[in-house]
Amino acid sequence: MTAATRVNDRLAMPLPATISEAIALEMERDPTILCIGEDIGRAGGVFGATRGLQERFGEDRVMDAPIAEMGFTGMGVGLAQAGMRPLIEIMFVDFVGVCLEQMYNAAAKVPYMSGGRQRMPVVFKTAGGCIGSAAQHSQCLWGLFAHLPGFKVVAPCSPHDHKGLMAAALRSDDPVVFIEHKALLLKKGRDFRHHPDVPDGAYTLPIGRAAVVRRGSDITLATLSATVEHALSAAEDLAEEGVSVEVIDLRSVVPLDTATVAESAGRTGRLLVVDEDYLSFGLSAELSMRVLEMLGFSALTQVERLAVPDVPIPAALTLEKAVVPGPEMIADRLRRMAKGS
Amino acid sequence: MTAATRVNDRLAMPLPATISEAIALEMERDPTILCIGEDIGRAGGVFGATRGLQERFGEDRVMDAPIAEMGFTGMGVGLAQAGMRPLIEIMFVDFVGVCLEQMYNAAAKVPYMSGGRQRMPVVFKTAGGCIGSAAQHSQCLWGLFAHLPGFKVVAPCSPHDHKGLMAAALRSDDPVVFIEHKALLLKKGRDFRHHPDVPDGAYTLPIGRAAVVRRGSDITLATLSATVEHALSAAEDLAEEGVSVEVIDLRSVVPLDTATVAESAGRTGRLLVVDEDYLSFGLSAELSMRVLEMLGFSALTQVERLAVPDVPIPAALTLEKAVVPGPEMIADRLRRMAKGS
Amino acid sequence: MVAMRAFDEACLEALRRKAIHGELHVGIGQEAIGAGMAEALEPEDAVVSTHRNHYHALAKGVDRRALLAEICERAAGLCQGRGGHMHPFDPSTNFSATGIVGASLPVALGYAHAFGMRGMDAVAVGITGDGGSHTGGFHEALVMAGARKLPMVVLVENNALAISVQFDDVSPTKTVAERAAAYSALGLHVDGTDVDAVADRFAEAMDHARSAGGPVIIEATCHRFRGHFEGDPEGYRSKEERQRLRETYDPITLYRQRLTTAGLFEDGALDAIQAEEKAAMKVLLSEVLDMPMPDPAGVLDYLFVEEVPA
Amino acid sequence: MVAMRAFDEACLEALRRKAIHGELHVGIGQEAIGAGMAEALEPEDAVVSTHRNHYHALAKGVDRRALLAEICERAAGLCQGRGGHMHPFDPSTNFSATGIVGASLPVALGYAHAFGMRGMDAVAVGITGDGGSHTGGFHEALVMAGARKLPMVVLVENNALAISVQFDDVSPTKTVAERAAAYSALGLHVDGTDVDAVADRFAEAMDHARSAGGPVIIEATCHRFRGHFEGDPEGYRSKEERQRLRETYDPITLYRQRLTTAGLFEDGALDAIQAEEKAAMKVLLSEVLDMPMPDPAGVLDYLFVEEVPA
Ligand SMILES: Cc1ncc(C[n+]2csc(CCOP(=O)(O)OP(=O)(O)O)c2C)c(N)n1
Ligand SMILES: Cc1ncc(C[n+]2csc(CCOP(=O)(O)OP(=O)(O)O)c2C)c(N)n1
Ligand SMILES: [Mg+2]
Ligand SMILES: [Mg+2]
Predict the structure, then answer these.
(1) Domain boundary residue among B129, B159, B191?
(2) Cα–Cα separations (whole angstroms), residue A154 to A86, A251, B80
(3) Residues A179, A313: one domain?
(4) Which of A14, A312, C96, D56 could serve as a FRET partner for C148 with CA atoms 20 to 30 Å apart?
(5) Which atom from ligand 2 is nearest to the alpha carbon of D157?
(6) Which residues, in sequence order, are CB contacts of B150 under 8 Å at separation 6+?
(7) pLDDT for res B197
(8) pTM over 0.90
(9) Catalytic positions of A
């Protein structure tokens, strides 16, 4: 295979195939890794992100679970305590209300409660985000996990980052909540605006480091997950209007790479945090405050946040569009910020 | 009974007795109110906050539930849909991971999802806070509920507010999470620094209005629940040192009374938000940002936050004291702020 | 049954016309359950359904125009376009649903307790699939209903699949009904492709619950003819298998055969009924598609009933 | 049993001396279960316990000095004072616990699957009280263990009370063991005040699970002699009732009677054993109380293993 056909194959590859490749490479490396979740085995995942794994690694290591999230999430805790490295899939992050107990009172706290005696290498893989599926199937909720100490919380955008961060999550000795975005899971490599290139072998990326995905000098825009794509699109529009936007992909909510954002915002003087999760008591306020705490409260001329305005996601797409930050909404806000300088 | 003996009785009254009185008055008024929870009936609640209610209103209206929080929380949703006004007690807020599903995907969202056709008058009564009970029995978690749209989130401090806000919660047509503090539940009226006086009859307080509980001119301190008591104690110390601290009891996290805090901070120029919940992605950043957004980012000379620094609550009291903001920790921070002006 | 089938076919058409976004779960193949239960339901009874809820809603008497309008995300929908197909709420018929598996039963428990307290002889019907029978919510609701002998009927639609996961692979028991003993509940089993059998058995279940006999688990075996949701690649079963199910177990075909064999109806008459329902739904759909979308200006409405104090 | 009783009595003394803060749940009256299970437990077996866990920990071989030091919040405690009495974790003996009712069983399920995968003949024991048998976690763990025939023993300590709530008032069944059929599990019942009976029955349960027979529910009826937690006003039962339980069902007294009746031991010898354990625990407690408290400077340690990248 030439490099060119390889790249072409990669570009034609749906994001879920990249994710399952990352998992497969790790499962090959480490026989203690196993996956449990609904429809991840025979069906290969509702988005295909575990396709082929059961055939390859067998039913014990890629287990189709009944709809018993409390049961199999706690099973993940027990498996980790028994020396395994489970990946537990909660199909959609919205369902976490049935099993948060095992996630936050056990997985996230056991390492601390045990005084460091018990490690907890569990990956909670789940999907969030809006694709028209209404209030109970559209949330992001990374702000919720981030509020509860003990989780690392990852939400990548590019195929490249999905592969590297999934590998890092599976190798981490800490519990990691890995939140994919449904809209991204429906994309192929070529549909991504940044970093669709994915190396073949296994590699990891450090969890907790943001990436500047577009350089700019007028406004700093920090976001993550699918919104990075929208932000890049908005930044392109704004560039045509003479406004230069620096776009930062946070990649994880915990750890939160404040330094990278602060460095950029210090340069541009303006910060916009965009979040597909709910506005209040979440990422946008925390990141804004941390940047201000780092730079001083009068260091920036503008600090704004754009997020879902504290309502459940409505069913009608016309309504969803009115609350979820998309390219137009982001561009509008950037425009207003640029004018209001 | 003379007014004097009445006041004395009130002062000798444990806070839970005031709470159960509030519930009783509402249950008398409104036959659709009923209470469900573990140990709330025959035992009258683990803190006594429902004492006497079962004898008075019968087993159907004050029901001892099995340890099946998902079951009886969902039952609350169904009862509300059937035209009742349930109060559901989750003994400790830490347990919410087993039933959050029914709270946030149903109770909090049904009013919106139904386009206003279905009201959801449910009170989720629970207890939070640190009294030496370690990682799984010490959390506050109001930041978690506040991040999820659709709840009102109340956490009072004084006996007076507990009574008035419980009545308001029971009369509200919106779902209310009512978070008591275990340390306060162990107190009598006379142990409170502010507002131990409680009128006899039923009364309500508006949900969403903060109270200035101590006037001051140098620093604004905003907090809620048991920390109000610690803040008042710290403010007394600081007063002796010549620093005048204004203390605001937020009383609720949703709605959050930013205006009252901003008015005060605008006057003093300095804001300290103290929170017994976890520091990050919670109340302290949200309130700070809202105040800054309201006043402008350079309106204040200092904005600081003091909260549990993102670790589970450790078991040892010596360790707990090192992470939970108490009077000394608050006083220290105020002192540093006063110096750093 | 025929009306229910026609309704879901209209939904498929609406999906093709891009009037529905997000997941859509239809009940095609399972309509005998809806039609059978409809006969025993009284207006004051409550039904709490699942993600696959259209035929249950129709069985409970939810207005089909408002329902279809909701599914098509219209302003005049049952929930003004906020709920969508998985979350119809109709207080006027005591019908509601949830998109979270297993979450329907605790809610039904609440209705059951309310009915008990009020001394009504209404029954709360909580519906779940086979997949939902493994959830903690199933257990907790039945523990409470069993201990308190509440008037609750748990209808388990066992189509042997939870998305791709086969019931036999994950259930510790051969049936769900046999677990009834663990809750001191009555366990019933019925062929969910036989509308007459469902009507009889479901009536028996309702009678039991209505007459203070305590909760009932009624398990109706059935088959899902389409993907779990529209667009499901169905990698977990073959086309042939699906075709075989359709040919063997279509409740409408089976019922038609019974009616014609018994000489009660002729094929022509039955064809006419089906054609009529189809036509009516076609008209309704086109009316619905002409309705306006919700106004984005009101997107923040309905979060709270009471205003936040100023 | 005697050592377990002495251990919990030392905890009570530590509480009186204000070395323990927060809730304390002791197992006084239930020690026959701990002692009986100890006999059948192998080092590689796992035990996942509850809020009432001291005697289970001792049964599993957790070091009692480290355990007592943890309960007394010392730096040299099993978990360096971070866990406390409800959250002891000892990877070296495969012992852990949780303060959340019902949460122990899913964790045990994880051990059971790991043992199965590795082809070990170890068994995972998940412990719960009667109260925990009503939780969704109980159901979900047993559904999965039953369907997969995992080597899991669910030990239900039925002391007829969940804090104040009587089992009979909230359970749909007379026993928990009879619910085993719903999970294709073996259901066993034993008098949890009779140490010999527990040892036999528990061994049977472990053998069944160890030999790939699938999960077992073993229900041990017993009595809690003290409040749910220390300080519990126990408004839900009379002093006389509690006294009666103590007098009738003390497993230590019952076992002593058996030993003396059988002429195996004399009262004096048994008194001596008890006195010895008491004295040993007294010494241990005073040593523990002399240990330093955890250093607040390290309060943020152990949250994550891996450093946050700079
Ligand atoms: C708690 C929860 N887990 C997972 C899902 C995703 N999900 C939706 S429907 C479904 C399968 C349901 O199977 P079953 O209960 O048998 O109903 P059916 O679809 O067959 O009618 C799953 C896993 C969910 N909605 N809620
Ligand atoms: C999910 C959850 N709900 C409630 C509690 C509070 N709580 C702690 S122990 C207990 C009673 C437990 O009863 P049981 O399981 O019978 O154990 P026992 O105390 O009798 O040993 C309750 C309600 C909890 N810890 N976790
Ligand atoms: Mg099914
Ligand atoms: Mg008990």
Answers:
(1) B191
(2) 17, 6, 37
(3) no
(4) C96
(5) 21
(6) A312, B104, B107, B108, B109, B111, B112, B174, B175, C303, C304
(7) 82
(8) yes
(9) 137
pLDDT at B4: 62
Task: Specify the range with the lowest mean pLDDT, choosing from A182-186, B8-12, B320-324, D144-148.
Answer: B8-12
- Cβ count near A49 (within 10 Å): 27
Are C117 and B60 within 8 A, CB to CB? yes
Q: Do residue A151 and residue A259 come from a single domain?
A: no
Q: How far is the CA of B65 from the centre of ligand 3 (A)?
A: 30
Indicate if B229 and B187 belong to the same structural domain: no
Ligand 2 pocket residue status of B11, Cβ below 6 Å: no
Residues B187 and B52 in one domain: yes
Q: Does B175 touch chain A (CB under 8 A)?
A: no
Please judge whether D87 and A255 are an interchain contact, meaning their C-beta atoms are less than 8 angstroms apart.
Answer: no
Does A187 share its domain with A219?
Answer: no
pLDDT tops 70 at residue A56: yes
> C5-53 pLDDT, tens per residue?
999 999 999 999 999 998 999 999 999 999 999 999 999 999 999 999 9
Which residues on chain D place their C-beta less than 8 Å from a C-beta of chain C? 134-140, 142-147, 169-173, 178-179, 181-185
CB contact under 8 A, C22 and A134: yes
As a whole number of angstroms, the distance between CA A298 and CA B187 comes to 43
Chain position carrying tokens 């949830």? C98
Structural domains counted in chain B: 2
**Quick one: pLDDT at residue D110?**
98
Helix axes C104-117, B69-81, angle to 10 degrees: 60
Look at C162 and A38 and tell me if their CB atoms are within 8 Å: yes
Q: Report domain extents, chain D.
A: 2-232+239-289
- The answer to whether position B155 is within a domain reads yes
DSSP, residue by residue, A82-100: TT-EEEEEEEEGGGGGGTH
Residue A314 has pLDDT above 60, yes or no: yes
Same domain, B161 and B274: no
Q: Name the percent of chain B lying above pLDDT 70.
A: 98
B238 within domain boundaries: yes
Specify if A206 maps to a domain.
no
Transcribe A227-292 into DSSP letters. HHHHHHHHHHHHHHTT--EEEEE--EEES--HHHHHHHHHHHSEEEEEEEEESTTSHHHHHHHHHH
Ligand 1 atom nearest residue C27's Cα: 21
Distance of CA B56 to CAs A265, B25, B28, D252, Å? 62, 11, 10, 42
Strand partners, A67: none
Q: What is the pLDDT of residue D310?
A: 52
- Residues in chain D predicted with pLDDT less than 70, given as ranges, are 308-310
Does residue A233 share a domain with residue A130? no
Based on the fold, state whether residues B158 and B234 are members of the same structural domain: no
Which among A150, A297, A305 is the nearest to B298, CB-wise? A297
Nearest CB among A80, A149, A206 relative to D303 is that of: A149
Look at the block and give the residue holding tokens 């769900």: C176
Q: How confident is the model at residue C262 (pLDDT cuts 50, 70, 90)?
A: very high
For C204-228, what is each residue's pLDDT tens digit?
999 999 999 999 999 999 999 999 9
pLDDT number for residue D306: 80
CA of C177 vs chain B CAs: smallest distance (Å) = 20
- pLDDT tens per residue across span C69-114: 999 999 999 999 999 999 999 999 999 999 999 999 999 999 999 9
**Nearest C-alpha of chain A: how many angstroms from B211?**
21
CATH code linked to domain C2-232+239-289: 3.40.50.970
| pLDDT at D37 (0 to 100) | 98
- pLDDT at residue A164, rounded to an integer: 98
DSSP A310: S
Nearest ligand atom owner, CA of A73: 1
Interface B:D, Cβ pairs < 8 A: 126
Out of D108, D136, D306, name the one closest to residue A174 (CB). D306
Residue B204 lies in a domain: no
pLDDT for A194: 85
Tokens read off for B231: 């803040």
- Residue B221 is part of a domain; what is its CATH number? 3.40.50.920
Helix (H) or strand (E) holding D300: none
User: Could you tell me the residue range of the domain that residue B112 belongs to?
Assistant: 3-191
Task: Report the pLDDT value the prediction gives residue A197, as an integer from 0 to 100.
Answer: 82
